[in-house]
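Note to self: keep these together.
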Amino acid sequence: MDDGPLRILIVEDEQAHAEAIRRSLKTAGLKAEVLVAGTLMEYREIAVARPPEIALLDLNLPDGRAVEVLTSPAEAGLFPILIMTSYGNEEIAVEAMKSGALDYIVKSPEAFSEMPRIVERALREWRLLQERKQADEALRVLLERYRQLWENANEAILVAQDGRLKFVNPMACEVTGYSEEELASLPFVDLIHPDDREIVVKSYLKRLKLETPANRYVFRVVTKEGTIKWVEIGAALIEWEDRLATLSLLTDITSRKQSDEALRESEEKYRNLFENAVEGIFRTSPEGRFLIANPALARIYGYGSPEEMIGSITDLAGQVYADPEERQAFTRAIEEEGEVKGYELQLKRKDGSGLCVSMNARVVRDEAGKILYYEGLAEDITPRKKSEEKLRDTLESLRSALRTTIQVMVAAVETRDPYTAGHQKRVTDLAGTLAQELGLAQETIEGIRMAGSIHDLGKISVPAEILSKPTKLTEIEFALIKAHSQYGYEILKDVESPWPLADMVLQHHERMDGSGYPQGLKGEAILLEARILAVADVVESISAHRPYRPGHGIETALKEIEHKAGVLYDRAVAEVCLHLFREKGYKLE
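Structure:
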């Protein structure tokens, strides 16, 4: 017993019995405060206000039975309770003990005299009982933690002994596809892929012989469905039921293996592309050295291998660039834009010969923005450049031949119609100027000028006496002259030219509303070049002198264009023409 005061509560409706018990406890010299209640109500009031260390309850009380206290969730288990009963009610008292009483006492003078010893023994048993309950609770909590660990572990946990699985967790079932019962009936070796069994069994036997410490290695398992999974296993020896066993922690690494394999294949594909690419692949430092180069790049620069080139070139600007300053311009363009595409550079090979290369490159920086390197693709366009130069020479020769041919044609027309010579020259100049004002490409302007110089070529098929007739033309004669557009087309349609000369000549008398000839085309169906020639032709024709009438002057011609812009003539071309004459002071020469 402790030296501190002990509070004992006696609940007995017979005062003589309660006094006998109280006297016995006091006589024994217990340092105890003895409280007495005669009913369950009084017991409850005292138990709440001054909870005792132990209570002795009569089985039957005026307002109820002690069993009510024992079975009440709010009252039971707070302190030890001894049930007191009269002789002959022992069976009832035993039932009370089943409900939670620590012990029972048959009321008698002998029992009352033994009460101090009974109380001390009951308190000892209660303390032991509470300690055991605490230990049981701690064990329960510990077991619950271990249960949660093995049930929720991300690794499969297996205990193997004599080649059989003695214990597995749910993850082991998930990895293998077998239930716990199925795994318990299977030899562990049956789970291992046939090609990996030897290494696993050897490792298992070495551990049993204590030849190797705990280690990790990788092998394949075959699931219940027949699929193959890669696992990494860590194993160690433990005691299981007083015998050696192997504890294994098994991790499913199938996804990691697949990722590793995909990465390996990707790296292999990249390596093949790198090694066999037609374009040169490079990475260079800001200081001007090659960091990485593929065989194609070495061939482009005339070296036997990437290693030779990387080792030989220590100054890109000086050793590779035809103009060393171009290196700085190239890197500046990359740094400003982040990347460049189709950047053409004049370089030189190992032997000093010229080289033209097209670069697609980008700059790579670290997190602080510092340049780490430049990388990209290089294509040798030297053959293409030579072909383009040769093609330009060929085209220039063709154009020269075409100009000569056209000059011959113009001369032939001029001999038959002296007025046509000046007309075609002035139309050509005006049409070319209009095209420039409209912002057309120089190539297109050249084609318009070429067509302007021969737009009346078809008049070579019209009788000379009609062309120079000083009086009004008959309908038949005018019809012959109108046919000159078609005649010109027939002459030019088979002539090789970079421009649609035949169609421009054919359409220069077409009008936006479809009232022109010879095809009656409308709007956008008429070539823009032909629409420009039409305005220039009308302005020159109205303003200039003809055999059959005097010239009407430039202002009359401009009014015609102004009033019928958008109807007969292209509005944008007409507006540019009016601006050219009225604002810029253009004159027909």
